[in-house]
Design brief:
With 385 residues, the chain is of the alpha/beta class. The protein folds into two domains: 11-178, Rossmann fold (3-Layer(aba) Sandwich); 182-384, Dehydroquinate synthase-like, alpha domain (Up-down Bundle). Helices cover 48% and strands 11% of the residues. The chain contains 15 helices and eight strands. The chain has helices at residues 22-25, 40-43, 46-53, 71-83, 95-109, 117-120, 184-202, 210-230, 237-250, 264-276, 280-294, 296-309, 318-335, 353-362, 374-384; strands at residues 11-14, 31-35, 58-62, 88-93, 132-136, 148-153, 158-163, 171-174. Strands 1-8-5-4-2-3 form a six-stranded parallel β-sheet, covered by helices on one side. The radius of gyration is 20 Å and the shape is globular. It starts with 10 loop residues before the first strand and ends with a helix. 50% of the residues are buried.
Amino acid sequence: MENFTYCNPTKIIFGKNTIAQLDELIEPEAKILFLYGFGSIKKNGVYQQAMKALKNRKVIEFANIEPNPTYETCIKAIELGRKEKIDFILAVGGGSVLDASKFIAAGIKYKDDDLWQIVTSRGSVVTSAIPIGTVLTLPATGSEMNRWSVMSKSSTKEKLSFGSEHTYPKFSILDPETTYSLDKKQIRNGIVDTFVHAVEQYATIDLNTPLQDRYAISILQTLVELAPSLMSDKKDYDAYASFMWTATQAQNGLLGCGVRLDWSTHGIGHELTAFFGLAHAETLAIVLPALWKYELDNKCKKLAKIARQVFNVTEGDEKQQANTAIMKTSAFFNSIQMPTTLAHYNIKKADIQQVVDRFAERGSSIGENQDIDAKAVEKILKMCL
């Protein structure tokens, strides 16, 4: 196990009717910037619950934060926040709104004119941020309990992540009933995102981390077990509650303690979003099986354990089981209506060159072994076709 430091200051308020606690969670004199997306929270009643709790507060609204939040939109929120002298940011929505809130919180305080440096520095230039609270409505990214944010810049077709100790939410409210209005596409995206978060921290170099490994496997087992109920038309509170908490646990830092992390599927997937506009989870479902095939020798032991412990595979030697894990994972994604090929999105061989060129321009390598360079990315993406 590698050395690590773990500190997670986010307070979680979990359960039914907890949005009503907003008033007591935010400082009484705070002027609040209320961030949300394109209005689904008004249709499902979450907006009304939040505003009722904040009825005696000073609240400035900023709406229309996109899936894959853009730098260009967040700059407008930063300008508004500075103008109104905001003291607190409340992000209500899914991971995109929460990610945007972290950039906005850091950006309001940042003194340099080039705010994109917050992202390109991976957060190292952030020295302070406006405090953040969140109300989560879509389990997926884990942004409600971590310091990380992923931002897109439309003008340059970039999608990059950053994080800072200053961008942890002060609190996050997780009411499973807020997820009842999600459609099947949103649910399947959340399942895939959570699944890949777990395996990017599990299917790596074996550093003798049995507790973390078992924790990751339990997350995968839980997702496979819950998926049929989540994808059905019934609103099973217990299933939605378990899903919401599972997604949070997959990316709150615990799985990665002492572990050599991968994140190459995310790295390649971000470029597919930047160039082709695919949803984040859609890119992960495409890249993961192909990347595992490419890295089969390196990941064989952990993949075989996934086959045995998640998909109940008992036949074959270790390598056969590892291959079966890849096949079973693709089949699991397909079972929740998630495509696993670029062809499904009409992305052809010629189209992937711009992604390869992007990696070549950066000249860096990704993966737990830092062995996936531009040439490897090209081979992996060709396997995704």
